[in-house]
Design a protein that fits this description.
Chain lengths: 400, 521, 55
């Protein structure tokens, strides 16, 4: 396939947390709201005058200092973020808003605060911690709304004078939806039998929408979508199976690249930083205030294992099945970042249930934050691809 | 072999390769006879328990029941070297806990579909987690609030250090990562291994101490709801429990939980019973505060595992619902006052005053007694004992009924362990130093439960603060339920090397420094 | 009177014998030594039970 025109541009945005678009938006006079967890409603961080940057630690090297502060038992994502913060890598941010999504992220941000790693020279800088619901119900919704008011909207308004009116929120949702719809449209090409976009390319583009100001990336997304309309896929696909990746935080495009280089096309991305359900548009009506509707949308769409009510737990596996059907996945790769408690359990449950109840071939792996070119992982994915092929052959034989 | 405290070489009671100790201590005539009489009482409790055929049947059905062979030894481990009032306080607590657990087991097997299968009884049972405040059951005196995980994993590991290993292995065979906390991991393992009694009208789970615990509940509820047909309510207590803007949510969760229990059991909430329990909770709080007050002086009386294990049971699992605990509180306080007036000491020498922080090793709960006997370190209080001291409303008025909902929510949010591991760094990090000052401690024993992410995440800042304040901080790493990772001797060695190299001290009882208890229960 | 004293004597002997027996068990930790011997047998029994192991 011909290279995507803007792929290198998108890849470059992922090389630094403080990428060129972040710098440009700040030069435009907007404030940068840093966040880490998918349960933070993104449109509220993108009100007029502000933009969100979801924190990553690209090109992570040594984690020595953060390992001293948090030991080697915490996941590498939380340690990599702290390490980068200690190095001064997030000094560009104007505030950070974080829910107690998991213990590790909570401790990571608290260490950032106590070690005074951020906000140097920024008088208005603030850390805000949110309580977010663990169940999807009316009580949870009330909590979500109140927490968003107290820990996102009020501080943004009081410290930076951001307009937090209903109209402003609706405008932010419209912009958010525009990005979501573009990503959805691009992602839909993955459903093709011989797709015109690779899972890696899609992952790069999606990731860029989390780490760059949306208003500055929109044009490139539109151009990419146009380009894809006429893009010709290779006649002979190098992929031998279609897999869906499900699991914990992945902001390492090398992981998707590794899977694809091992022969499996990544047709769907149901992970934290992925597009499913992260890039679902938020449909608003005029009968209810926008904030409540956003919170409801986040609460209902949330597939994070921290949601603990039975319906939500069951839905996590139903949703994977639905996506696997929609995106025609031959198999599912459940991944978990090493030391991630929530996904350690969900990986165990999901990998058994999707295999035993729904009949999918499932590979369950754990991985470091930055996978590089792991031979061990390649071997596992290759073996998984072969097992899918063998099953397909056997199924073909059985069907005559 | 003497009446005097510290006269024995306690390490000599251990035998290489043996599960049990060579013999029991001679503590002087009066104390030995007292200890013997309490041993007889425990034997009678156990005898009464095995008289029921269903309990014998359960013994042969559930693997974890084998651990209950070691009940008397658990008491012996906690009473090591104790004399006089200390011995009596310890028995008062331990024997009551044993009695309570025996009743719990008996009830579980009565309702268990596989064993007693008493359907009528089972319909009055509400299952709760092991790590869950039972505040929400304070107004249901006719219902049985039972935890299956308490006897299968929690108490089992107190009895036998290796009790959870089988279940941990089962969970890992099913693909659970080996780095999660072994406590919920073992609880999930019990469920996977089909080794939990099946009973109850409904279950109340809670987002207890940690992410692992929350997700482990998901494994358990999968079987409970989808196979056993037992409806489950997940009670979500806010994590940032010190914040005002989460209290309404917490209160509504309590209202919802009560409504759920009423719906599935057909039993109505009883305010009289609630306020009665609330009075007992307040009394327990008063007693605990008095004990802690004594511990601030040079003559602490209720401390170490006497304080830790009892508080955990009384505060969380009992929560004012059992009158016998009020009686025990009274007796313990009387004994403590008596000993305090006489300026009594539990060991022949007190060298250091320590705050024990973090999550203690479950397979080595008697470590606190060892600290005292081996090195003269007085464990004045521990993190799990520093729980809420808020007084509950006790008078039945319309306003108080509303306040009572908030009180229950507060208790649930401030459950043991989670009141420190969640809620921001202040409750875990900053308040430790306040307690160090308050108790006039010169050292901190900091349990580093290696799979506890909430604690590990503050490692460096603990060290920096200790250095800044000039407090001796000793890390004691362990893996909570799994002695295969760090053995009991491995735990002791961390103290031994600190005491020898940093303090340059010799042990008070050198026979305890290295113990051949690797194979011991 | 003699019979009464005799009964008392028998009771005293029984109590003394019971005390001697139970105290011997207590002080030499024989109860725990016995249960420690039983445990391996019980564990083998548990291994033989068919279980419906699943999530």
């Amino acid at each position: 396939m011909k290279d995507l025109k803007h792929l290198i541009y998108f890849e470059n945005l992922l090389l630094e947390a403080n990428n060129e678009l972040v710098q440009k938006a700040q030069a435009d006079g907007r404030i940068c709201v840093a966040y880490t967890c998918e349960n933070t409603p993104e449109p509220l961080l993108n009100l007029e005058g502000a933009f969100s940057a979801r924190l990553r630690a690209p090109r992570t090297g040594s984690l020595d200092i953060s390992t001293y502060y948090m030991t080697s038992f915490l996941c590498e994502y939380s340690r990599a973020l702290l390490e980068r913060a200690i190095e001064g890598g997030y000094n560009f941010a104007d505030c950070i808003i974080t829910p107690d999504g998991c213990s590790m992220m909570n401790r990571c941000i608290e260490n950032m605060e106590l070690l005074k790693t951020m906000g140097q020279g920024k008088d208005k800088f603030f850390f805000e911690y949110m309580e977010i619901p663990m169940k999807a119900d009316d009580n949870g919704l009330n909590l979500y709304v109140l927490q968003c008011k107290n820990h996102i909207l009020t501080p943004l308004h009081e410290k930076y004078g951001i307009d937090i009116s209903d109209a402003a929120i609706r405008k932010a949702v419209a912009e958010h939806n525009e990005i979501c719809e573009l990503i959805r449209a691009i992602g839909d090409y993955r459903k093709e039998v011989n797709p015109r976009i690779t899972g890696y390319e899609f992952n790069v583009i999606t990731l860029a929408t989390y780490v760059a100001p949306k208003y500055l990336i929109k044009d490139k997304l539109k151009e990419t979508l146009e380009e894809l309309k006429t893009r010709e896929p290779d006649e002979n696909s190098k992929f031998r199976a279609r897999v869906m990746v499900v699991g914990s935080e992945v902001d390492d495009t090398d992981f998707i690249k590794l899977i694809e280089e091992s022969g499996a096309y990544v047709c769907a991305d149901r992970f934290c930083y992925g597009s499913l359900p992260g890039r679902n548009p938020i449909v608003l009506n005029d009968d209810e205030d926008a904030l409540t509707q956003i919170c409801r949308a986040y609460m209902n769409k949330g597939e994070c294992p921290r949601f603990m009510n039975t319906d939500k737990m069951d839905h996590r596996r139903i949703y994977v099945d639905e996506l696997a059907k929609e995106y025609k996945a031959d198999g599912i790769i459940y991944e978990q970042m090493k030391f991630c408690d929530p996904w350690a359990y969900e990986k165990m449950m999901g990998s058994h249930i999707l295999n035993e109840k729904y009949g999918y071939p499932v590979l369950a792996v754990d991985r470091p934050y930055s996978i590089g070119n792991s031979g061990q992982m390649q071997t596992r994915v290759q073996a998984f691809v072969e097992s899918i092929e063998i099953k397909n052959i056997q199924r073909g034989n059985a069907n005559g | 072999m003497a009446k005097q405290v510290g006269a024995d070489r306690l390490g000599d009671f251990y035998k290489e390769g043996s599960k049990v100790r060579k013999r029991r201590e001679w503590r002087g005539l009066a104390d030995t006879m007292y200890d013997y009489s309490r041993w007889l009482k425990i034997m009678m409790t156990l005898g009464k328990f095995v008289m029921k055929p269903r309990n014998v049947k359960a013994m042969f059905r559930y693997r974890w029941m084998a651990n209950y062979l070691a009940v008397p030894m658990m008491v012996d481990r906690h009473t090591q070297g104790l004399r006089g009032e200390y011995l009596r306080i310890c028995h008062e607590e331990q024997d009551l806990v044993i009695d309570d657990v025996a009743k719990l087991l008996d009830s579980l097997f009565r309702g268990d579909r596989r064993i007693g299968n008493d359907k009528k009884f089972s319909d009055k049972v509400v299952l709760v987690d092991e790590n869950e405040m039972t505040a929400v059951m304070m107004g249901f005196p006719t219902l049985k609030c039972l935890s299956r995980e308490t006897p299968s994993t929690y108490v089992s590991v107190l009895l036998n250090q290796y009790a959870a290993c089988h279940y941990i292995d089962v969970a890992q065979e099913f693909g659970l990562a080996g780095d999660v906390c072994p406590m919920p991991e073992a609880e999930a393992g019990v469920s996977i291994d089909d080794d939990a009694p099946v009973l109850g009208a409904c279950a109340i789970q809670c987002n207890t101490t940690c992410d692992g615990s929350l997700l482990g509940n998901g494994v358990i509820s999968q079987r409970l709801e989808h196979e056993d047909g037992i409806p489950v309510f997940q009670l979500a207590a806010p994590l940032r429990h010190r914040e005002d803007d989460v209290q309404e949510y917490a209160a509504q969760e309590i209202r919802n939980a009560i409504a759920f229990i009423e719906k599935h059991t057909g039993v109505k909430w009883d305010w009289d019973a609630y306020f009665e329990c609330a009075k007992r909770v307040n009394y327990a709080t008063e007693c605990r505060q008095e004990w802690l007050e004594m511990n601030r002086t040079p003559y602490p009386q209720v401390f170490g595992s006497n304080l830790a294990l009892y508080t955990e049971t009384n505060y969380m699992a009992i929560c004012g619902r059992v009158a016998a605990f009020e009686k025990a509180d009274r007796k313990i306080t009387k004994l403590a006052r008596q000993a305090y007036a006489k300026k009594k000491m539990a060991a022949k020498e007190y060298r250091h005053r320590a705050i024990v922080w973090g999550v203690q090793s479950h397979y080595y709960m008697d470590f606190l007694v060892w600290l005292l006997n081996c090195w003269g370190i007085v464990p004045l209080t521990d993190m799990l004992s520093m729980v809420s001291t808020k007084k509950l409303v006790t008078e039945d008025t319309p306003e108080n009924r509303e306040q009572a909902i908030y009180d229950m929510a507060w208790l649930t949010e401030n459950m043991i362990m989670r009141n420190r591991t969640h809620g921001g760094y202040k409750v875990l990090l900053d308040e430790l130093w306040e307690f160090v000052e308050m108790f006039n401690a010169d050292m901190v024993i900091l349990w580093e439960h290696m799979s506890c992410k909430a604690l590990d995440g503050m490692h460096g800042l603990f060290e920096e603060k200790a250095r800044e304040k000039g407090i001796n901080l000793v890390w004691v790493t362990h893996d909570l339920f799994d002695p295969r990772i760090i053995s009991r001797q491995g735990v002791r060695d961390q103290i031994n090397s600190y005491m020898r190299t940093v303090f340059n001290e010799e042990p008070i009882d050198p026979s305890l420094e290295v113990l051949p208890d690797d194979k011991s229960w | 009177m003699m019979t009464f004293l005799h009964i008392l004597k028998v009771i005293a002997i029984v109590i003394a014998a019971l005390f001697a027996l139970t105290f011997t068990v207590y002080i030499f930790n024989l109860d725990m030594k016995l249960t420690a011997a039983i445990e391996p047998w019980l564990l083998k029994h548990y291994d033989k039970i068919d279980r419906d192991q699943h999530l």
